[in-house]
Each structure stands twice: as structure tokens, then as C-alpha cells.
């Protein structure tokens, strides 16, 4: 399935409106990211002060310019678009979760959906006019009616997301941005642990399977990947051409 990650425009995103229109939304979506309104103002102010920004849209694709913090924030925004689109699709595909805890699984995936939407909207609001456009995603390789297919994809997205934030952190020059990114990646790590435990009970903290991504189980260190490696892996699910410069 190929679709464009538009903002609240398609039937598949009707549930997303509840994040802003109902009680959950009024609690402020930024609580999920561990940031508040002041955080958005801070990031937005930093972006406006950053000189040399150029329109990232190019020939129907997007360009991530890592010469400054805007590029790193747009990189995170791109990944959050991908994750949000995936969980929205899960929520609207009525995936048949099994087992005695099927209802709990479904409810938790609904929560993850709102977390990822919150992260996506946080970066979009923070970047303002510096934000890249909506990405076109392709989830045709995922069987959304199959619990095992959905769990496998979710594990891949969450593990990759944690590695992406870990790898991008050192590129941030502004300590405030780094703090906010650290709060978001901690939420992503909670997702990754939960999904891994659903697939194989007790595996939530097993880093051995992430050795190929750079995790070090003996040292208790999670994986960290550079943006070029992350985008190469994520490219399977992104139709929009993403160019990277000044990496």
C-alpha cells in the first residue's frame, strides 16, 4: 500500500483528530514527548535564528542538510512521520491481536499511535516554515491483518528509531535540542522494549539481536546508527526521494 502522510486529510487519520479534539488532546500531546509548550517555543526560536536555511523540497523529494541543527530536526521529523503513518495504519486496519491479552495489545498500540503522532506534530510545529513536506510511504510489504507481520514491522521501526536518535544526538549543537531528543528517544525505547517482549517474552532488554546495528550487550549500550545507514534501511518504506548533504 502506498499513501501520502497528509495531515488529518484521509479517512485513515480520523482517529488522529481525537488527539486534539477530545480529552486526550487537551492534556497536550507534548506530554508524550516529555516536552511542554515552552519546549516548542524554544526549538522554534532556535530554528528561526539559524541562518542559511534553504527550501528542502527538491524535484518532488526532500533534502536533509546536516550543516546545522535544522537538518537533524528534519531528519527526526521524517522518521516520526514514518512511524506515525505505520501506527495509524495499524489502528485503522483492525489487526487481529491474539491471546488472553489481545485487548491490552490493541489498546497499547493505540497509545503508541498517539505518541508517534505527538512526536511528529512536535517537530512540525517546532520547525515551522523550515519543515520538510509530508513523506509518501509504502507499507505494501506489511500484512496489517497479521499480528506477527505487524509486530515484526513494529519491532523493526522501533529498534531503528532508537538507533537513529542515538546516532543523531552528537550532531546537535544546541544542548536544549539534545535534551528534547533524549526525552523522545526514551519513549521510543519503551515502545521497542514492549514490542520485543510481545514477540518473545523476556527479550525486552536483549541487545544481542541488535549487534548488527551497533548494540553492545556486554557494555549495556544500545545501538547507534548514522543518518545515511538509517535512511538506507527505512527506504524500503518511503517512496519520497530523500537526499542527504553535508553529512
Q: Specify the CATH homologous superfamily.
A: Ferritin, core subunit, four-helix bundle
Structural class: mainly alpha
The structural domain count equals: 1
> What share of residues is helical?
40-55%
- Mean pLDDT metric: 78
Gap from first CA to last CA = 31 Å
Per the principal axes of the C-alpha atoms, what is the gross shape?
A: globular
Number of strands: 5
**Count the helices. How many?**
8
Report Rg: 17 Å
CATH fold naming: Ferritin
**From the coordinates shown, what is the CATH architecture?**
Up-down Bundle
In sequence order, what are the helices and strands, one letter per element? EHHHEEHHEHHHE
Low-confidence regions? 6-46, 48-59
Q: Indicate the proportion of strand residues.
A: 5-15%
CATH top-level class: Mainly Alpha
State the major sheet: 3 strands, mixed
Walk across the major sheet and give the strand order. Answer: 2-3-5
In terms of quaternary structure, the protein is single chain
Please describe what this structure looks like.
- The protein is mainly alpha-helical and 247 residues long.
- It has a single domain (2-245), classed as Ferritin, core subunit, four-helix bundle (Ferritin).
- It contains eight helices and five strands, in the order βαααββααβαααβ.
- A three-stranded mixed beta sheet has the order 2-3-5, covered by helices on one side. A two-stranded antiparallel ribbon has the order 1-4.
- α3 packs parallel to α5 (102-127), α4 packs antiparallel against α5 and α6 runs antiparallel to α7 (175-199).
- Residues 6-46 and 48-59 have low confidence and may be disordered.
